[in-house]
Amino acid sequence: MRAAIRRAGEKVKGKLADPIWALGAMSGTSLDGVDAALVLTDGVTISEFGASGYRGYSDAEQAVLRAALGKWPGDDLAEAAEVVFRSHFAALQGFEADVIGFHGQTLAHEPQGRGTHQLGDGAALAEALGRSVVWDFRSNDVELGGEGAPLAPFFHWACAKWIGADAPLAFLNLGGVGNLTWVDPLSTAPEGEGALLAFDTGPANAPINDLMMERRGVAFDKDGTLAAQGQVVDGALELFLEEGYFRKMPPKSLDRNDFSLMLDLVRELDDADAAATMTAMAAAAVMQGMEHCPVAPQRVLVTGGGRHNPVMMAMLTSALDCPVRPVEAVGLNGDMLEAQAFAYLAVRVMRGLPTSAPGTTGVRAPVGGGQISRV
Ligand SMILES: Nc1ncnc2c1ncn2[C@@H]1O[C@H](COP(=O)(O)OP(=O)(O)OP(=O)(O)O)[C@@H](O)[C@H]1O
Ligand SMILES: CC(=O)N[C@H]1[C@@H]2OC[C@@H](O2)[C@@H](O)[C@@H]1O[C@H](C)C(=O)O
């Protein structure tokens, strides 16, 4: 395994070295657990997808992480750090891999302010797992003036190639926050240099989850059942769309709680109307974002938990004039795409390739990021 890692940084007669197995780990803004997934790649082409796994957070662990949201290095984070370490160790330990891509848990994200903070110690994880770990993917981009997010777009580019796409398309992640990547798979520009435009669309599931917890004491609106019983209240939706974020040109990114005041917009509504209206807000934010695509995408491939919400999917389908499908329609795994993305990005970091570009984070030139903790 170590030989494979050493080889990873080298070029073979001008070409990139052989593909290696990378294991990605992601704990997203929904704070539900750690996804882990294997990808065989040379950092450019996806050769094969491998096994995946999931380690959910207990209620107590989730409460610890929730309490840590908004905190920065230097704050008291010992308990949250222990949760991140323990859960990632458990999620990753059963796999064989040449390298691990460890995203960590985003606690705070203020790219134009204090920076971006992903909790997690990649060096400690490397030592415990006995494998090299690439981590801290976002800070270099932010230090160089970028948004530090989204970072999945380079992987979306590789996915577009993997599915044999021959026309511009969009990947839409409906996680806690939503993000959109427009890809032109026929562009001759290197990935990230004209072939991609990406940004966070707005809040997606996080505010709906917060509403469900506040009103019903449950984690989320399973299958959009509550939203399906309500009516969208146009006045609240219009106020939401007046947010300055929607007038900003991409690239742009969000913190999970940037839209936490959304709950106030539905405060007077009954539970079902509030859920319907918040679901419509997530879809409307995507619609606003679509207007930024350089060329209308021929299809939208949806990843992340929101694709399981039939109400949100129906709203998107009726508002967009191209097919909207879960990524499973093209053979991808929408529950694991982000973990796979950080596996892929880890190999790019090992090989000195960029992981973001002006079109994806607004950074001035294509840049790499990430620390490498070798064993
Ligand atoms: N069956 C379902 N019905 C409705 N919503 C669902 C369903 N399954 C998942 N979700 C929503 O998707 C969320 C999880 O999405 P996902 O795992 O993509 O988020 P994440 O990766 O944590 O977020 P991010 O991409 O912002 O980091 C859940 O919290 C829930 O709101
Ligand atoms: C700062 C941060 O962690 N942002 C996340 C979050 O979750 C979705 C959206 O906001 C996206 O910008 C990003 O994650 C994905 C994996 C990304 O970087 O592509």
From TrEMBL:
Its EC number is 2.7.1.170. It catalyses: 1,6-anhydro-N-acetyl-beta-muramate + ATP + H2O = N-acetyl-D-muramate 6-phosphate + ADP + H(+). InterPro entries: Anhydro_N_Ac-Mur_kinase, ATPase_NBD. Keywords: ATP-binding, Carbohydrate metabolism, Kinase, Nucleotide-binding, Transferase. Pathway: Amino-sugar metabolism; 1,6-anhydro-N-acetylmuramate degradation; Cell wall biogenesis; peptidoglycan recycling. GO terms for biological process: 1,6-anhydro-N-acetyl-beta-muramic acid catabolic process; amino sugar metabolic process; peptidoglycan turnover. Catalyzes the specific phosphorylation of 1,6-anhydro-N-acetylmuramic acid (anhMurNAc) with the simultaneous cleavage of the 1,6-anhydro ring, generating MurNAc-6-P. Is required for the utilization of anhMurNAc either imported from the medium or derived from its own cell wall murein, and thus plays a role in cell wall recycling. Belongs to the anhydro-N-acetylmuramic acid kinase family. NCBIfam families: PRK09585.1-5. This is Anhydro-N-acetylmuramic acid kinase.
